[in-house]
Amino acid sequence: METLDDLQYNDLKIIQSADGFRFGMDAVLLANLAPLSGVKRALDLCCGNGIVPVLLAGKRQVDSVSGIDINAGETERAVRSARLNGLAGLHIVNGDIREIEKYFGYESFDLVTANPPYLKANTGRMSSNPMKSAARHEIYCTLGDVLAAAFKVLRFGGGFFMVHRTERLAEVLHECRNSRLEPKRLYMIYPQADKRPDLFLVYCIKCGNPDMIVEKPIIIYNNDGSYTDDYLKIYYGGETK
Prior knowledge:
This protein is of the alpha/beta class. The protein has 7 helices and 11 strands.
């Protein structure tokens, strides 16, 4: 079973599995906050059903967008979503990011994005649904695999933008630097103003110099459960090129 969901922007739509992985707030923030100055070619790692590539191509108007995921069912849905939305510049690959050089050229992208599995294998509760478990746990790729793939395909000085959970913040920043992806901008995501942040986004530069800015906190919900004005501006506008 599948659903066809309206992305509430310029009639963009996404095809999703009804009972498998479905995109969430993290993917929306990743696509809408990605810095795009000078970006002509972008790649989304672990693209799933293609939500981030669809938004980058259809909403943020990046000239050429690619996505790669190991799940054949998800990439097939992503291909159909690209066709449905008339996104001729969107290219989806069913493949393993651990063998990224089989699919894409070395230093061929200006920007790489990633919404990777958040949980290490054999930690937390594993879903009985294989699609959900692969999206949440590092079964087919680890954090290190994602960073290695990004480094290979990014041009020198290109940008890497990733969303992850705050409990792994120290590890992520450490591993990014070890992978020669220098953290430059950090966004902390708060569900509400009086809650702890549960997500973060980090923007890195390949072989960049050390100098990181912590951006203004992003708060998703008001106390009454409605979206904050800041989040609505991100969702409907995205970062200006």
